[in-house]
Give the backbone structure.
Amino acid sequence: MSGRLQMRLMGWITFINASVGIALGGLLYTIWPEHYFTWYPSIPVFYWLTAVAMTYFLDRVKKKNGDVTVTTFMLVRFCKFTLAIVFLWLYAVLVNERLKAFGLTLMLFYFIYLGMETYTIYLFEKKRMKREKRENEELSQK
């Protein structure tokens, strides 16, 4: 991934994370204060950090292998899911404040990021397929 593309992706991830985090936090704080919990900001930070780590890892795999496979992508998703479960467990053990609201908010963010990641991989695959088609056409013309 080029430096420009990586910066755009990180900017997009940060923008979406900040937008969703502030909007949902604002709704919870003002409209549904009974569901707001003091550790709410840790959820957007957690998902932002995992998105940065995923982007870095997939970039390294792409540089080493030339392309990102579906297996690699699914492995990264499994790791993110496992980290979310560990994060929920740590919250339950250490804080245990409004656990249901925390779990539902964590799950909501997980599905938002699942959609974002799926769309991102779709764009990468679309670009890869165009590139391969163009390369095949160039080879067939020679």
Remarks:
- The mean pLDDT is 84.
- The chain has four helices and no strands.
- Residues 34 and 73 are 37 Å apart (CA to CA).
- The chain has one domain: 3-136.
